[in-house]
């Protein structure tokens, strides 16, 4: 973990510039405004990201509905979201009420018993590694884990884990591939 902290300190600014940023230049974590639980968890996670990756300026962006979160992710306006498992899976599959956009290639960074932090599949590997490291700095309060679901083995039964998150969980070095 000490090596990760050093790498984050030295590399955080470079990876940070690659993240899609919202208004005001902050890294946005989208949540479903109709789900108070995602807002509460989102605020805790954004705070943790700001502590570990201060340059990110991470903050929560509330969308009025899950359909709006789906639209933001599918249109590449945003990269990260805290979404309840069942809703995230419907977004991933393009099931109602998300069929208008169609399936979104999502990947999981971390999850707990009810929520997943998801990103687009094209989220850079080094950014996913850094964000996962920041979120897993103190995983116990939210019971966070990095799931072991590589994309090669996953069907549409569950959302695969991002390769950067898998690299972090296995203690592998991060790279830009």
Name a few traits of the molecule.
alpha/beta; D-Maltodextrin-Binding Protein, domain 2; 177 residues; globular; single chain; five-stranded mixed sheet
Report what the structure shows.
There is one protein chain. By secondary structure, the protein is α/β, with parallel strands linked by helices. It has one domain (2-169): D-Maltodextrin-Binding Protein, domain 2 (3-Layer(aba) Sandwich), CATH 3.40.190.10. Helices cover 38% and strands 15% of the residues. The protein contains six helices and five strands; from the N terminus they run αβαβαβαββαα. Strands 2-1-3-5-4 form a five-stranded mixed sheet, with helices on both faces. β4 and β5 form a beta hairpin. The protein is globular and about 40 Å long.
Short description:
It contains 6 helices and 5 strands. By secondary structure, the chain is an alpha/beta fold. A 5-stranded mixed sheet has the order 2-1-3-5-4, with helices on both faces.
CATH superfamily: Periplasmic binding protein-like II
CATH classification class: Alpha Beta
Tell me which CATH architecture applies here.
3-Layer(aba) Sandwich
Which residues form runs of ≥5 with pLDDT under 50?
1-24
Provide the domain count: 1
Shape: globular
Instruction: Kindly report the average pLDDT value.
Output: 85
What portion of residues is helical? 25-40%
State the order of secondary-structure elements, H for helix, E for strand.
HEHEHEHEEHH
Q: Measure the end-to-end span.
A: 22 Å
What is the topological layout?
Blueprint: H1 2-16, E1 28-32, H2 36-52, E2 59-63, H3 66-74, E3 80-84, H4 85-93, E4 106-111, E5 115-120, H5 125-135, H6 163-169
Parallel strand pairs: 1-2, 1-3
Antiparallel strand pairs: 3-5, 4-5
């Amino acid at each position: 973990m000490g090596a990760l902290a050093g790498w984050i300190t030295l590399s955080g600014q470079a990876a940070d510039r690659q993240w899609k940023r919202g208004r005001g230049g902050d890294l946005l974590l989208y949540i479903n405004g109709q789900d108070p639980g995602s807002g509460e968890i989102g605020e805790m996670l954004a705070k943790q990201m700001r502590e570990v990756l201060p340059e990110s300026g991470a903050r929560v962006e509330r969308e009025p509905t899950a359909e709006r979160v789906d639209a933001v992710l599918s249109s590449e306006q945003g990269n990260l979201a805290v979404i309840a498992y069942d809703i995230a899976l419907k977004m991933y599959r393009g099931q109602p009420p998300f069929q208008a956009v169609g399936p979104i290639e999502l990947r999981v960074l971390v999850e707990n018993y009810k929520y997943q932090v998801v990103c687009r599949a094209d989220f850079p590997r080094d950014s996913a590694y850094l964000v996962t490291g920041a979120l897993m700095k103190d995983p116990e309060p939210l019971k966070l884990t990095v799931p072991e679901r590589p994309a090669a083995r996953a069907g549409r039964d569950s959302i695969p884990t991002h390769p950067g998150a898998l690299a972090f969980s296995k203690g592998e070095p991060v790279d830009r591939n």
